[in-house]
Amino acid sequence: MHNPFSQFSPDTPIVLDGAMASELERRGCDLNDPLWSARVLIEQPQLIQDVHYDYFMAGADVATTASYQASFPGFAKRGLSAEESARLMRLSIELAQAARDAFWADEHNQVGRSKPLVAASVGPYGAMLADGSEYRGHYGQSEQQLMDFHRPRIAALLAAGPDLLACETIPCQLEAVAIARLLHEEFPQAVAWISFSCRDDANLSEGTPLADAIAALEPFAQVVAVGVNCTAPRHIAPLLQAAAQTSGKRLLTYPNSGEAYDPVTKTWHGSSDPQAFADAARQWRAAGASCIGGCCRTTPDDIRALAGWLRGR
Asked: Domains in the chain and their CATH numbers?
């Protein structure tokens, strides 16, 4: 098992990328679809590659693939076969790899940088339901059922050779442990980060204290980083402080822009500012985060401001 983060110094902050779906919308894509950004894998894959490239240019050390919403049941609802679904999942990784390789081919981009990583996004079971369940976590599924759901998708994603898995927006401890156990039992060479969605300063979206969920992942060596994403920025510092008390793993965070999401109307309200986002990241770094990026509604401008501060430029 190789930890891809080992190429970075423990004291060097790692810059994650920002939102994929909302950035695609900003560029004219219609994502009013249960497949969300995975729809663009089918219709306009080059746009996804372009977004990845722009995040690398903005300073991202890691690209998170457009596979968050991709699943065999979800694609099947659109009439795609298992073979077509697996191909699209592999494509999500290939697009990020192509963007990374194009970025790295320019020697000017290598100055002061480590070669960026590609993290295959693994969304929660609730993302497949496309009903906001990933912000509640009460699925009515057992640990074994969740393992069975994640198994074929993780196998398909790993077949494309990502550097690691980004298991993200996980709303409940049960699902996080199911993923970690699945990796341990069936994918021993895979490594992953597991990142939770939280509803306040202390608890997962489902209600379990984040500290308890983080502690439950501590025995799993393949989980190389833990943290919080898709959460309001105001909650991040206290959540990281709680996580730091129970974990010796790298801590990561990539919160939303600061705007508020209404899962019923599927609309965003409020405003965001790249410099304010980067300024807030100082608190997250002080609270222990060594991997910092953005989630929903963040843009390459946010990542550029963030990378500029983290790298002292």
From this structure: 4-310 (3.20.20.330)
